[in-house]
Each structure stands twice: as structure tokens, then as C-alpha cells.
Amino acid sequence: MDTYYSTKKYLNGKIDENMKIQIEDSWYKVLQDEFEKEYFKELAGKVRSAYFAGQTFPPAPLLFNAFKLCPFNEVKVVILGQDPYHGDGQAHGLSFSVPDGIRTPPSLQNIYKEIKDDLGKDIPDSGNLERWAKQGVLLLNSSLTVEKHRAGSHQGWGWETFTDAVIKTISDSREHVVFLLWGRFAKDKSYLIDDSKHLVLTAAHPSPFSAYSGFFGCKHFSQTNDYLKKHGLPTVEW
């Protein structure tokens, strides 16, 4: 079955069967009950209207891109962002990531700087993090959509309830996953995670406004790989 998101199917169809088409199959199986809840039906209506009106990011085919590139059983790291980027051409369904050819945003520049300091790796020219997602890094935003040039505009619609369920499902059903929670918003999600069987690492947000308050020097990337290696899991090529 085609797992790509389809605007036409989303606009014209019902929630249950269309969601199976929109989201990668392994995620559909573990989240199926969530799609049937009333809040999600209301959320779907709002998102449907927003896409129909235009000016919503990411592009509709990339709404569930994080799930498509990182199937449920392959998740070994979760990096939680807040909103998709709201500038033209930036958002493509992966937290902190931008497509090839788009200027690397400041927060991601700081993430790259920390990786260089932590692991000695050269800073890439591209801000596209698909290579991470394909290694089992779930790049999850708490809200999956945003209105053009209006940061936080879709917060409170119900996305947070859905992505909280994603985090809790990973915590409950998997073992030895690393959760990287940067900034107060992400840290507030720690209650969803069972830290007796997962590694939870917290730090300041990599934004230029806060990176020097505890993100730089956190060494989360080496700690992540050390933990994965300890539990017999492939490390991430950051």
C-alpha cells in the first residue's frame, strides 16, 4: 500500500482508511486507536481546512515524513522539536531539518557545531537530516503543521496530544531508545518516558538565544552512541 501522504485523499476521505495510506504501516498499526479518538477527528478537520486554504507547511506529501523515513521498529533515537519551520521551502516533516539547497537554520548550525566539538566531525554543507532518519532517528515535532510565517500557529489544535501518544507508545513498547530533549518545552515531555529502560538526555535548546546556557558541551551525540553500543545496537553516523 502507498504510504505517502495524499492531499486529495485527505481532503475527500474518511479518517480511518485514509490514515493508513498517509502514515507508514508500522506506525499505523501501533497508533490505530489514536486515529479513532474524537480529538484526532477534530484535528484532522482543522488540518484538512488549513491545507485546502493553502499557506500550510510542510507540504502535504511530507506531513508524516518523519514516520515514513523511520519505521516504528527501527526507532533508536528521538529528537523532539516544537513546530515545523514556517518559512518558504524550509519544512519537510523532520524536526530541525531543511531540504537540500535551503540555508541551514541557526539551531541546526549549533547542533552541527556541538557534533564537531563532541565527535570531531566536519560540519555538513546541507541541513537535510534525512540521513539521520534513515538510521533510526525519529525527528519529531510536537506540532506537525504550521501556518506560513506564523510560528506556533497550529499549537493547541491537538497535535500535541497525538505526538505525546507517539512518545508514550515508543516508551511503552520499545527498549533502549535515546530521547534527546532540548529546551524547556521538550524537557516537559520527560514524564511520558520510562527512564528505567530508556536513556533521557536533556539540555538547553540549540537556539542562538540559549545554546551557550547548556547545549554547547552537552556531548549528547557521543553519549547516545555509547548507550546504543552498550546495548548491542548500531550507533548513529552523525
Topology, element by element:
Elements: H1 7-12, H2 15-22, H3 25-35, H4 38-53, E1 56-57, H5 65-69, E2 77-81, H6 106-119, H7 130-133, E3 137-141, E4 146-147, H8 159-173, E5 178-182, H9 184-187, E6 199-203, H10 220-230
Helix pairs in contact: 2-3
Explain this structure.
- The protein is an alpha/beta fold.
- 39% of the residues lie in helices and 10% in strands.
- The protein contains 10 helices and 6 strands; from the N terminus they run ααααβαβααββαβαβα.
- The strands form 2 sheets. A 4-stranded parallel beta sheet has the order 3-2-5-6. Strands 1-4 form a two-stranded antiparallel ribbon.
- α2 runs antiparallel to α3 (25-35).
- It is globular, with a radius of gyration of 17 Å.
- The model is unreliable at 1-21 (pLDDT under 50).
Quick structural summary:
The protein has 238 residues and is α/β, with parallel strands linked by helices. The protein has ten helices and six strands, in the order ααααβαβααββαβαβα.
